[in-house]
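ENTRY TYPE: protein
CONTENTS: sequence, structure tokens:
***
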Amino acid sequence: MLHFDTGTTGFMLLATSLVMLMTPGLAFFYGGLAGKRNILGIMIQSFVSMGITTVMWYLCGYSLCFSGNELGGVIGNFDKAFLHGVNLNSAFSGNKNIPEFVFIAYQMMFAIITPALITGAFVNRVTFKSYLIFLVLWQLLVYYPFAHMVWGGGLLAQWGVLDFAGGIVVHATAGFAALASVIYVGKRRDKASPPNSVPLIAIGTGLLWFGWYGFNAGSELDVNAITGQAFLNTDVAASFAAITWLVIEWSMVKKPKFVGLLTGAVAGLATITPAAGFVSLNAAVVIGIASGGVCYLAVNLKNKMGWDDALDVWGVHGIGGCLGTILLGVFASKFVNAAGTDGLLHGGTTFFIHQTIAVVGACIYAFVFTYAMLAIINMITKVKVSETAEDQGLDASEHGEKAYDEGVL
């Protein structure tokens, strides 16, 4: 049996565990933001992804993302379906110090959380049965192709596009899929539904922030100075974004809002994700400030346009992922990471153009495919819940459960 590096393997297992924790963290974050009749309905959509996505990853997901190169580099093949050929002696091709099993587990956690991000947009409007079909099809037709094209040696990787931890693959695709979902299912009947638990939002944010260190620092897939750089860049960008959002909202509504501070932090985390291991600490500061301002404006634009993205998935993740990918095209530096490239500020005009085209293309693809997919699913089973079910709340109408037993409070 091969002897792998125990330190690097241990770190990657820890990073994998941190990314896994983000999905329950997302469930708490969304669960707190949802109205009190839809807490379980939104939380189960995150938790069920942990089960279904794992099954899919074993059956074909890992293989389609990281094996072969078909259709001109758009998708992989089925050579490693059912994890065929992977054993205790299989080393990860990108770092022979860790077993392939560890890389499989790490990437699986990314696949789990990405479709779960979308759910915040259509809270209390979508049937659980249609969501399960959506969960399967969206990964096959949107997530797997982009994971392969960017991280699996596919088309965009060959074109020189960089995405350290998921600005394109995770946040841009999920954010614009969320916008398509909102436009397809329409507005909530009760848009005035306030968050049911701000402390639950805070717990969710804390778990997401904590898990994001594994998300970004772990994406170096090694233990070195870049790992530390990505870790610190992540924290700094999130912090600057949180304070920027707080200050802007405070100046606008004359009150310092806790939910705004938390939302700003998540926006900063999403925005630094594609750039975390490729830019300097000073660039991370600028990215954080830009994120707090741009994502706040995006949420305001969404409100003016009347898009009922209930939990601001498009404004935070979609715009954050786009902004971070484009700013990576500006600030990337080979001085920071020799395995990367130079951005616009360092003479990399072509790289900047490629980053911009790639992320815009990803957003259009995700939007169009998601909208079409929902229309097709609606032919199989109703996507939108009935007005009666929506008024009753999905916890009761879809799941027959209540988040809290008021009788014992």
Summary: Residues 6-383 form a domain with the Ammonium transporter fold fold (CATH 1.10.3430.10). The two ends are 57 Å apart (CA to CA).
